[in-house]
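ugh ok fine here u go
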Amino acid sequence: MSTTTNDAAQPKVKGKEYLKGWIPYSIKRYWAYVVVTIVGLSMPWITINGNHIFLLNFDQKKLHLAGVAFDMQELYLMPFILMLLFLGIFALTAIGGRAWCGWFCPQTIFRVIYRDIIETKLLGLRKRISNKQQKPDMSKVENQLKRVVAILIWSALAFVAAANFLWYFVPPEDFFAYLANPSEHMVLIGFLVGLALFLIADVIFIKEDFCIYICPYSRVQSVLYDKDTIMAIYDPHRGGEIYEGSGPERHKLYAKQKELLAVEPSAECTTCESCVSVCPTHIDIRKGMQLECINCLECVDACTKVMGALGKPSLVRWSSEKETIAQEGKTSYVRAKTIGYFVALVLILIALFTMGSKKENMLLNVNKTTRLYKVLDNGGVENDYIFLFTNTDSKAHTYYFEIIGNDKIKIVRPEEPFKIGAGKKKKSVVVLETHEMLANDARKDVPIPVKIRAYAVDDKENIVVERDSVFVFPRSDLIKK
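structure:
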């Protein structure tokens, strides 16, 4: 196999000098975990004018978004939020592979907390973070006790994580009030305990098998990849082909460096397998792209340390197939696919903010009753309606309504404005009446269009809605002269 770079062509640099100023991806990733954790824990507590940044409140049937509360009837915004979520992850995958999995996914963060911090750093069950293949020796009583302590610590954290998840559906101020009366909120308690038990089983027993076998994202990723998608890639041109065949079914060929050098004298891979032992999903990145890879870049750090000590660049890089394998030039980040994702995301954001800016502080549903009309003894005609008012504002208001563009129809009931509390609803029977001859048709009833304007008496300029309905006028032969 021909190589593009060999030892003779590379400058000899001492390892310490070569690695000077180098910041491992793991450090950057840990900082990303800290940011994600802080944002995830703090967001449910942040409110603007009494409304949360994001809250899908099933209890009150409201959606809080960017400090604005939307009623259940305004949940037309949810599809846009879901599209942003999925298209955002798809765009991230097309550009950076499974960067979501390795850098932002709660599953990965939880495993790092349990395996690297609790088991390794805190309790010393594992010898070092760089070897994730070696399991703790559970034959020792001391390690068994440490294992129990690790489970207890994570169990406590699992309940915090489960509560944090529920805070996006039940606001924290209500959540703790409900916990004070558990017998009256058994559904909430059930969700809390169930989620916590799932997190305990997932992080301690299922582990990275969740990423490999359960999470559907790993199956979707291969469809979203192209030659310019950046991921953890082993450079066979420099390191040498240590597996024969192609794809994930390759068979191991060279287990030792001397065996590899015998066939490829210019191969730089030391066959130290540091990239293998550090992998949390237990794969060998030298086989090529595999769906188990979560782009955590642990293998890149491991190879950088080994090759850096030799004064050489890492054989495993966060790069693209186009740049590293095919060697067809630099990775192209701006391409048709990424432009398409960007345009789609911008359009969805525009639609979301446009529709969100039209939030109504009052909702009104107008429905006719089953009785179309009533002919009065004095020749008048009444129509009955059911008005459902919803005060979606954060404070109480007094409401009333009027008929627009038709002074021949009068409001008979209710006679006075009425008050509705913040976030409350009120159903009102409304009677409209006319003593005018609105139509003269002896064959059939005639529907007369009616426009109704409802408003808050105390804030008529800002809180006002209009609804269209009909006033059914009977056949002329039914009207008493």
